[in-house]
Write a structure and sequence with these properties.
- It is an enzyme of class 1 (oxidoreductase).
- Keywords: NAD, Oxidoreductase.
- InterPro entries: 6-PGluconate_DH-like_C_sf, NAD(P)-bd_dom_sf, UDP-Glc/GDP-Man, UDP-Glc/GDP-Man_DH_C, UDP-Glc/GDP-Man_DH_C_sf, UDP-Glc/GDP-Man_DH_dimer, UDP-Glc/GDP-Man_DH_N, UDPglc_DH_bac.
- This is UDP-glucose 6-dehydrogenase.
- GO terms for molecular function: NAD binding; UDP-glucose 6-dehydrogenase activity.
- The protein has helices at about 10-20, 35-40, 50-60, 70-75, 95-110, 125-135, 160-165, 175-185, 185-190, 200-230, 235-245, 265-275, 285-305, 335-345, 355-365, 375, 395-405, 420-425; strands at about 1-5, 25-30, 65, 80, 115-120, 145-150, 170, 195-200, 315-320, 350, 370, 380-385, 410, 425-430.
- The chain has an 8-stranded mixed β-sheet with strand order 3-2-1-4-5-6-7-8, with helices on both faces. It has a 6-stranded parallel β-sheet with strand order 11-10-9-12-13-14.
- Helix 5 (about 95-110) packs parallel to helix 6 (about 125-135) and helix 10 (about 200-230) runs parallel beside helix 13 (about 285-305).
- It is globular.
- The N and C termini lie far apart (about 60 Å).
- It is an alpha/beta fold.
- It binds nicotinamide-adenine-dinucleotide.
- Nicotinamide-adenine-dinucleotide (NAD) binds near residues 7, 10, 29 and 121.
C-alpha cells in the first residue's frame, strides 16, 4: 500500500517512518523546504530517541521518501494522513487553518478514491468540515472517505508508543475505509492491540477527553502537593498509596511543576472552548488548567521568596528546559515560565539541557548556556531542577555544593532524598514533601 503523510513534524515523521517500518510505502510531505532537504539526507530535525535509525533504514530500502510536492504524494497514495499542527488561537480554540489549507490541496489533486485521515488533534466536527471543504474544491467528482485516527504517542518515547500503542482509535463512516485502515494497521492487529472502531465525532472527542483526563490527574496531585506542604504530609507517599488502588493507577500522579508541551495545555483549552460553544460547562477541565498555572506560580515564588523577595543580581542555575525528558520540545515548558519571571525580577540565569538549548536560544538569547550541570552550578546562588532528565538524577551533589556560591537547591521534580541533600548543607525545597 502507498500512503501520504501531509505535515512532517513530530507526529507526521514518526507516523510515516513507523508505517514504512511496517512495510508500507510512505511519502512524507512538508511545506518547509529546509526540513525536507535535511530529511532526504536522513537528518532528523528534532530530538526523538530511536527515530533516526528507522528513517535511515527505510530511506535506504526505498519505502520512505520526503517531498514538498503534495500533488505527487496524493496521486500515488490510497490513504492520505493530515498531520499538520493545530496550535492554539489567542482564545484557546484550535487553529485549523493548516488543516483547511491541506484539505483544499487534497481536493485539488485528487483524481481517484482516497481515504483522508486526520492524525492531527482536531476538535469535534473537523472531520465533517474537511469533507465539506473537499467536496467544494473538487475539480471533478471523485469518491472519498474521511477517517479520524487520533495519535496518542508521547514525545521522548514516540517510536515505541507508535509500535506498541495501548489502543488504535478509528472513527469512520464507511466499511470500506475501516477495512483499509485495519489493513494498514495489520502488524498491530497481530500483536493484539485493542482497536476502537467508532464514528468520527466520537473518535475526535476521545483524544481530547484522554488528554484532559491526564492533565486533570497531574493537576489533582499538584493541588494535593500544596495541601501536603500546608499540613506536613508527604505527597509521594500519598500518590503511591493512591496509585496502588486499581481504580486509580500510579501513572500521571507525580507531583511536580505541572504539565507543559505541545499537547496537554492546548488540548485542554481547546476542549473547554468547544464545550463553551455548545453551552456545556467543563468545570473540571477548567480547574485543571487553572491549577496548572497556579503550580508554576507557586513554585517560582518559592525561588523568589528564598531570596527574601530580592533576587535582583542573584545567579540562578536551571537544569532542564524541555517540558519533559527525552525531547527538545520547549513548547509551554515550565522552564520558560520560570526564566521569564526571574528575568523580569532581574536575576541572572545560567541554564543547561541535554537537548533543548538550541530551541531555547531562540526565545532567550541573552542568558548563559552551559555545557553541563556542573558549569551551571559554578558560582550560582541557587540551583533549580525543572526537568527530570536521567542525567540529573545522579549528580555529584557534593561537587555541586562546592562549586556553588549559595546553598539553595530547588528540586521541582522530587528526584532527590531531602535528608541527603540537607545533610550536605543545602537549603532544600521540593514539592509536597518535607
Ligand atoms: P509540528 O509543528 O511538529 O509539525 C507540523 C508540520 O506540519 C510542520 O513541519 C509544518 O511545516 C507542516 N505543515 C503545516 N502546514 C502544512 C501544509 N499546508 N503542507 C505541508 N506541511 C505543512 O506538529 P506536531 O507536534 O507533529 O503535531 C501535529 C498534530 O498532531 C497536532 O494536531 C498535535 O496536537 C497532534 N499531536 C501531537 C503530539 C506530539 O506529541 N507532538 C502527539 C499527539 C498528537
Amino acid at each position: 500500500m502507498h500512503i501520504a503523510i501531509i505535515g512532517t513534524g513530530y507526529v507526521g515523521l514518526v507516523t510515516g517512518a513507523c508505517f514504512a517500518e511496517f512495510g508500507v510505502f510512505v511519502t512524507c510531505v512538508d511545506k518547509d523546504q529546509e526540513k525536507i532537504k535535511k530529511l532526504k539526507k536522513g537528518i532528523i530535525p528534532f530530538f526523538e530517541p530511536g527515530l533516526e535509525d528507522i528513517v535511515k533504514r527505510n530511506l535506504k530500502e526505498n519505502r520512505l521518501k520526503f517531498t514538498t510536492r503534495i500533488d505527487e504524494a496524493i496521486n500515488e497514495s490510497l490513504v492520505v494522513f493530515i498531520a499538520v499542527g493545530t496550535p492554539p488561537r489567542g482564545d484557546g480554540s484550535a487553529n485549523l487553518e493548516y488543516v483547511e489549507e491541506v484539505a483544499k490541496e487534497i481536493a485539488k489533486n485528487m483524481k481517484s478514491y482516497k481515504v483522508i485521515v486526520t492524525k492531527s488533534t482536531v476538535p469535534v466536527g473537523t472531520g465533517l468540515m474537511i469533507k465539506e471543504i473537499i467536496k467544494k474544491n473538487l475539480e471533478k467528482p471523485v469518491e472519498f472517505d474521511i477517517v479520524s485516527n487520533p495519535e496518542f504517542l508521547r514525545e521522548g518515547s514516540a517510536v515505541e508508543d507508535f509500535m506498541r500503542p495501548n489502543r488504535v482509535v478509528i472513527g469512520a463512516e464507511s466499511e470500506q475505509a475501516i477495512a483499509i485502515m485495519k489493513d494498514l494497521y495489520r502488524p498491530l492487529y497481530l500483536i493484539e492491540t485493542p482497536f476502537v472502531i467508532t464514528d468520527i465525532a466520537t473518535s475526535e472527542l476521545i483524544k481530547y477527553a484522554t488528554n484532559s483526563f491526564l492533565a486533570t490527574k497531574i493537576s489533582f496531585i499538584n493541588e494535593i502537593s500544596a495541601l501536603c506542604e500546608a499540613v506536613g504530609a508527604n505527597v509521594n507517599t500519598v500518590a503511591k498509596a493512591m496509585g496502588l488502588d486499581g481504580r486509580i493507577g500510579p501513572k500521571f500522579l507525580h507531583a511536580g511543576i505541572g504539565f507543559g508541551g505541545s499537547c496537554l495545555p492546548k488540548d485542554t483549552m481547546a476542549l473547554v472552548k468547544v464545550a463553551e460553544e455548545k453551552g456545556v460547562e467543563l468545570s473540571i477541565v477548567k480547574a485543571a488548567i487553572e491549577a496548572n498555572q497556579r503550580q508554576r506560580e507557586r513554585l517560582t515564588a518559592k525561588i523568589i521568596n528564598a531570596f527574601d523577595n530580592n533576587i535582583q543580581g542573584k545567579t540562578v542555575g536551571i537544569l532542564g528546559l524541555s517540558f519533559k525528558p527525552n525531547t527538545d520540545d520547549i513548547r509551554e515548558s515550565p522552564a520558560l515560565y520560570i526564566i521569564h519571571t526571574l528575568l523580569n525580577k532581574k536575576a541572572l540565569l545560567k541554564v543547561y539541557d541535554p537537548a533543548a538549548m538550541e530551541n531555547t536560544k531562540n526565545i532567550f538569547p541573552d542568558i548563559i548556556y552551559c555545557s553541563d550541570p556542573y558549569s551551571v552550578a559554578k558560582n550560582s546562588d541557587a540551583l533549580v531542577i525543572v526537568t527530570e532528565w536521567n542525567q540529573f538524577r545522579n549528580l555529584d551533589i557534593e561537587k555541586i555544593k562546592n562549586l556553588m556560591k549559595g546553598n539553595l537547591f530547588f528540586d521541582f521534580r522530587n528526584i532527590y532524598d531531602p535528608q541527603k541533600i540537607r545533610q550536605l548543607g543545602f537549603k532544600y525545597f521540593c514539592v509536597g514533601r518535607y
